[in-house]
Design a protein that fits this description.
heterodimer, A: about 525 residues, alpha+beta, outer membrane lipoprotein receptor (LolB), chain A, 2 domains, B: about 180 residues, 9 helices
Chain lengths: ~525, ~180
């Protein structure tokens, strides 16, 4: 008999080659898809590295520049001195106003791709273009962010809850932390920018010999200019240019939320607030004075299933507390709260019948986690008895500052390590806490029974109401079934904490691209898979 | 890992070079994963093709600090699972008119050039339950943590670990019996 290790090795070490001709054909399709996606979503992937990395543009952009550029200085300064990185960050944080102008070289000419203004304690405005066309306008006032898309002529509000712009910018540091020794001081490229002498540092990476990044720092350790250059025919050519100005006068009326008379304003939080108000819930429970769990709907569905729509969220006090706290860890992970159902049961005359849960819809938005789930009986359903009750069990998980708060309330901090966070993060990872509630609620089962189509239809319509926000990537409705663990994790960690998602069919992510029938079919197949799974055990 | 971060970074900016590099770097491991899951060459090729096309269509989905290999492996596994469910439905409905082995051999433009060892392993993997197969392949070939596999399958870590353990046992038994023949 082969030892288990040999089996593992056998599986790990199997060899496979591919046919070069097919490779070429497949790669053609892939690259064509990339080009198509650029046309469809110019704002999302135009060749401006900052836009895709950081959503809140202004200070993040400037901070990112500082971060990237300054890392290299660690090796120049050595220990015992204040690093240039720290100086640059401090300079950035102390700037009263910032202006960023980004340009991209396209079809033989320079095109403005972003123009961003920031005034401390007042607001920020970002205007973005692609190939000469305005693609997005963002206005922030510290509490809200409005994103206007000319495509939909809609401006959508999202909250800035949990965001610290500078901290978020530090995310990019992770990508460059190993590049300290790649930054090269290049005196021959020193220039004056707006009559301020600046020193050039060039960032090279051995894996990408045809790319380099140039940073010009002024004497106050501020990044004044960035360039990305590509090597073409052995010559370095600039394809992207960003200029950053500090402490210049700003007309603050530009931060007024006024996109024009015909623009539709949409506030997803308001919609969610109306649909998921704990005060109007079937059941709500304040947990540890910090978070609220609520059940908004409970339905019996034909086929012996139970549909439960529920939510969890931090209290307003908790939100304020989180916002005012500084992160303990170096790694910045915005606050994250989620819950998962454990095996729950229907109680009939003292007997418990176990139910397995499957998600059919999920929204994560601004600290709130909402789930639409179906409970499937693991044994014969007995709910026709009039006094049947449903006992709901779940586990609540929190990460980051919210976890710190809950640990203070007596929750146990659990080991995160490889189980909770990306492999590269554990050394600096934030707190993680988890608590089981068995049960959290015992609910009276309603008498009426619904068709599955009625339940999925209701779920579908709720998503449709939020769809305009999807088109601007403020809300994402996507098939949870197809999400990777990283994506799920990301949804909790995203910059503006305002993602939503719902299970749908295939790769289609928007209700308008999916019929209710297709969604219902998908839910049916998910149920089928779930039943097969537990029956096989 | 730093190379992956860089590739993601460039890819999110629209770099086709970065996407090509990602493709070259991970195509084989994805093909191994899917062919192990489905033991069907044509389907594996299609799924890996679709994975990369989907990636190209949505660069914004990738997270700078995400694990690229795990992301792609999960994407491939999810598609393979859907495909497998569809196959089961077709079989249940009597619609499967093609024998997988036959369809493999008939495909003229075959992409995968599989070694004997791969065929042996995949044959054995095909004999264990799909969930166990998935746990083994994603962990050993995809390099995914049990936690990530559990999330992608919507089950607990304990369940994944059990599937993995039972699957390995069965696999060992199958391979041993093959060796004895």
């Amino acid at each position: 008999m082969k030892p288990a290790e040999n089996i593992k090795k056998l599986i790990k070490d199997v060899e496979l080659d591919t046919n070069a001709q097919m490779d070429k054909a497949v790669l053609n399709d892939v690259l064509e898809a990339l080009e198509e996606s650029k046309k469809k979503k110019p704002a999302a992937i135009k060749p401006n590295r900052w836009r895709t990395i950081m959503k809140s543009r202004i200070t993040k952009l400037a901070a990112a520049a500082v971060v990237i550029g300054a890392i290299g200085f660690f090796s120049f300064l050595g220990n015992g001195q204040t690093s240039l990185y720290a100086q640059a960050m401090r300079a950035l944080q102390e700037a009263q106003s910032i202006h960023v102008l980004g340009k991209h070289f396209h079809d033989g000419q320079w095109e403005t791709v972003e123009d961003i203004w920031f005034e401390r304690d007042v607001g920020a405005l970002g205007v973005f273009w692609s190939k000469g066309e305005k693609t997005k306008v963002i206005i922030e006032d510290g509490n809200s962010r409005w994103v206007y898309s000319p495509l939909t002529n809609t401006a959508i509000r999202s909250s800035e809850f949990g965001c610290q712009l500078i901290d978020e910018a530090a995310e990019i540091l992770k990508a460059f932390e190993n590049w300290e020794d790649r930054l090269v001081r290049t005196p021959s490229g020193d220039i004056s920018i707006d009559n301020i002498p600046c020193q050039l540092y060039v960032l090279y990476h051995p894996e990408l010999p045809d790319d380099r990044y140039s940073f010009w720092f002024d004497q106050d350790r501020r990044v004044r200019q960035l360039e990305h250059q590509q090597k073409l025919n052995e010559e370095w050519e600039i394809d992207q240019f960003t200029k950053i100005e500090y402490d210049l006068p700003v007309d603050t009326s530009i931060f007024d939320v006024d996109f024009g008379p015909d623009v539709t304003l949409l506030d997803p939080e308001k919609i969610l607030g109306q649909d998921f108000d704990p005060a109007k819930a079937l059941f709500s429970e304040l947990i540890s004075d910090r978070v609220i769990f609520a059940v908004h709907d409970l339905k019996k569905a034909q086929g012996g299933f139970l549909y439960l729509l529920s939510s969890i969220r931090p209290t307003e006090d908790t939100k304020r507390g989180i916002k005012s706290r500084r992160a303990k860890a170096k790694t910045v992970v915005p606050n994250y709260l989620s819950f998962e159902f454990l095996q729950s049961s229907v109680q009939v005359s003292g007997t418990k019948y176990p139910y397995k849960c499957i998600k059919i819809a999920e929204i994560v938005h601004n600290g709130m986690h909402i789930q639409g789930v179906l409970f499937i009986p693991k044994t014969e359903s007995k709910w026709d008895v009039p006094d049947s009750k449903f006992e709901v069990s779940l586990q609540v998980r929190a990460i980051g500052k919210l976890a710190d708060m809950l640990v203070e309330e007596g929750w146990q901090e659990i080991s995160h390590g490889e189980k909770e966070l990306p492999a590269e993060a554990p050394a600096e990872a934030p707190a993680v806490t988890l608590r089981l509630f068995k049960p959290i609620a015992t609910l009276q089962l309603p008498g009426e029974e619904f068709l599955l189509e009625q339940i999925t239809g209701q779920q579908y319509l709720k998503s449709s109401a939020l769809e305009p926000a999807v088109q601007m990537d403020i809300l994402i409705l996507k098939p949870l079934h197809l999400m990777s663990s990283e994506e799920i994790e990301e949804a909790g960690f995203l910059e503006d904490n305002s993602l939503s998602r719902i299970e749908t069919l295939g790769l289609t992510s928007k209700p308008s691209e999916l019929t209710i029938e297709e969604y219902t079919d998908y839910v049916r197949s998910t149920i089928e898979v779930a039943i097969n799974q537990y029956q096989s055990h | 890992m730093i190379e992956d971060k860089l590739l993601i970074w460039k890819f999110k900016r629209g770099s086709s070079d970065a996407l090509s590099r990602i493709y070259e770097k991970y195509k084989n491991s994805l093909l191994k994963i899917v062919s192990g899951l489905l033991n069907e060459t044509a389907a594996a090729e299609d799924i890996v093709h679709d994975c990369f096309v989907s990636l190209a269509q949505s660069p914004e989905k990738l997270r700078l600090n995400g694990n690229l290999k795990s992301y792609l492996a999960t994407s491939a596994a999810n598609r393979a699972r859907n495909w497998n469910s569809a196959r089961q439905r077709r079989e249940t409905a009597g619609l499967n008119d093609a024998d997988p082995a036959a369809s493999n051999s008939k495909r003229p433009e075959q992409w995968i050039i599989a070694g004997e060892r791969l065929k042996t392993v995949n044959r054995a993997l095909a004999q264990i339950p799909y969930e166990q197969r998935e746990a083994i392949i994603l962990h050993l070939q995809g390099g995914m943590k049990f936690k990530a596999i559990a999330e992608s399958q919507n089950v607990s870590i304990n369940t994944v670990q059990s599937r993995y353990r039972y699957g390995l046992e069965k696999l060992r038994s199958i391979l041993d019996s093959e060796a004895e023949l």
